[in-house]
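Dock FE2/S2 (inorganic) cluster; give full complex structure.
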Amino acid sequence: MARLISKETIAPAFTRYVVHVPEVARKHRAGQFVMVLLHDHGERIPLTIADSDAEEGTITLIVQEVGKTTMEMALLEPGAEIEVAGPLGTPTHVENWGTCVCVGGGAGIAPLLPIARAMKEAGNHVISILGGRTEELVILRPEMEAASHEMIYTTDDGSFGKKGFVTTALAELIEERGRPDVVIAIGPAIMMKAVSDMTRPLEIPTIVSLNSIMIDGTGMCGGCRITIGAETKFVCVDGPEFDGHAVDFDLLMKRQRMFVRQEEEARRRFEELHRCRAMESAEVK
Amino acid sequence: MGRDLKPAERLKIPRHPMPAQDPVVRRSNFNEVALGYTPEMAMEEAERCLQCKKPQCVEGCPVGIDIPAFIEAVADGEFLKALEIIKQKNTLPAICGRVCPQEDQCEQVCVVAKKHQPVAIGRLERFVADIELAGGEVSMPEPARPSGFKVAIVGSGPAGLACAAELARMGHQVTIFEALHKPGGVLVYGIPEFRLPKDIVQYEIDNLKKMGVEVRCNFVVGKTASVKELMEEWGYDAVFIGTGAGLPYFMGIPGENFIGVYSANEFLTRVNLMKAFAFPEYDTPVALGNRVAVVGSGNVAMDCLRTALRLGSEHVVCLYRRTRAESPARLEELEHAEEEGVDFRWLTSPVEILGNDDGVVTGVRVIKMELGEPDSSGRRRPIPIEGSEYEIEVDTVVMAIGQGPNPLVTQTTEGLELNRWGNIVVDETTMMTSIPGVFAGGDIVTGAATVILAMGAGKTAAVGIDGYLRQTAGQPRATAAATA
Ligand SMILES: Cc1cc2nc3c(=O)[nH]c(=O)nc-3n(C[C@H](O)[C@H](O)[C@H](O)COP(=O)(O)OP(=O)(O)OC[C@H]3O[C@@H](n4cnc5c(N)ncnc54)[C@H](O)[C@@H]3O)c2cc1C
Ligand code: SF4
Ligand code: FES
């Protein structure tokens, strides 16, 4: 069993957790994830390892509360025991490409952090483009600044950095500075698709990290499968990183919606239950 | 003593059918289908055994249980004695009594079967084992003096569980490393509750823990630590690999990645391990339509078909490219599926899965087959009949066409010899792999097989490991490190 050491809200509906799980911390490399199960009735969900400390035996997870399980996780208190298996997935292929542009959108900034850091350490000139709907949702800015040489920010509402999407900023960057040696894009599927569509004609190698639905995370169920070029691949073992130019993003987006109805129901039930509990405890007080 | 009957009298007793839940009732619940013999039925069934001098059934049993001896004890009403006899060879009788293909093993060669129906050996085994589950005390063998050796078992399926039990009995310190959050392998994630109640698997695992075996879940060997690290850094003197055949195969036909297509592993894992049948009380969902097609006709396919019925699907179709006679499923399972209303389409193979613009399955296009000349496996090869294609309207498709070895461990273990299918090559007497001190058994060696073969392999490996430790390994690593 792994133990929750601390938790902290870092933005609306974003929580940073530090979890004690020494075997995972010791083996973790950039690009890997863990499968987390909160309790006996829970579901297994994949979460990227945003950081690790081998000496302390801890890993950091940054989680956006989007569904029942992540909302429930946000209610855990330090000391809570959860099940954590990992580190899973193939680590990022890190090399000195030259100039590396890291594009992160929303919750995708968390998995991007360890990769940006590893790329910087490998000698790349790292330019990060981070975007979100509004200022508060552009998370992990100090950490990403430390892991990058240059920063560009965008927000949909213009509350911070340039108004617009990360893709626009990337297009401008390429126009002004020429072709980078590699682009790493992590965020919503639609964003990764847009980035890949832009870099494909320019032949800029583009790495994306896919967040498909998983159960075991060890290659046993095939639920995470996705089409890459003409082949079927399992995201949990063959990925999560793939050549963005070969990914069938339309299929990924469809498959991600496989259980929307059930997920919606679970979330609604949870919120209702929780609201009742909150009201009860308010009455007691 | 049982009644003193002449062979002719014994042969006159008809084989006792297994009491079972009514098909109409059971197709909408997950409770166990077969209900088990009463003591009276068991004793009378036991009287059907002729107590052969050269019992064929023992030859037919993959682990060589002294079948006539245990059956005689049952006839005498000495059920605990019967259990002890079984347990000398079979570590998991309550499980094997439920899932073994007896009709291809002991019961197939039982002499009574020549003219009559065979003695119901499997049902008797189950009856005896259930006495223990119901609280009958069984004397546990005293574990040997601690040897000081540490053994790591990778995977907690029947191979790993049997190997662990034997090694613990021999006095070794055993840790099971399991990738999932619950131990049991296929017994918990694959085989459904209505065939093998999960309490039984849990009971066996609790017994192992009582014997001092440590079980570490959420530990993915090859990722959390490699086999080499388990030996060199974690101080294990030997490793047993029992990781099973967990890699699902797909057919490679168009439309297989549409929404609504599951591998059997995914479908069964969601329902059995994660309890999706009780969604939303349990958080893992399973989306299943009213019309379901399952491709394949082995035990795995039967489990998927019958699970789909229990989840409420109205029309459940089995697509198999050969005929009923070639179906690899156990006859009992096939019959149960037929009774429950599965629509079997023999000599039928899917060629394409159809979907709408949202990528959601709407049907499956199939082609009819005929049987041609026998192939290398000796079975007649199915040949498509040109122009016989037609469409079946379904909203869910489950692929149950087989599983291969999961490469997580094998790929991260340098020097491990594999065959061309990716299975581990072992010395058949000791079960040692090409790496000294590393042993393997079960589906990872044989390819997808049976519970009893996996269990037998685990036991054989335990003997191999014990021999290796006492003869070759020298001092336990932990002691060696402490004195160095
Ligand atoms: C649906 C289904 C129905 C079946 N029905 C029958 C039946 O009726 N009768 C019968 O005799 N047989 C049946 N079988 C076959 C039988 O279950 C298998 O032959 C048997 O379970 C094999 O045992 P095993 O110990 O080799 O592997 P498994 O039972 O597959 O166990 C392997 C274990 O290793 C774990 N593991 C894998 N990789 C790692 C890793 N890297 N690190 C740590 N742990 C790991 C897995 O999570 C799993 O728990 C069925 C199989 C299926 C799938
Ligand atoms: S072969 Fe049949 S009759 Fe003979 S001992 Fe075995 S079970 Fe009894
Ligand atoms: S999550 Fe099951 S195979 Fe990838």
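Observed: The first helix of chain A runs from residue 22 to 27.
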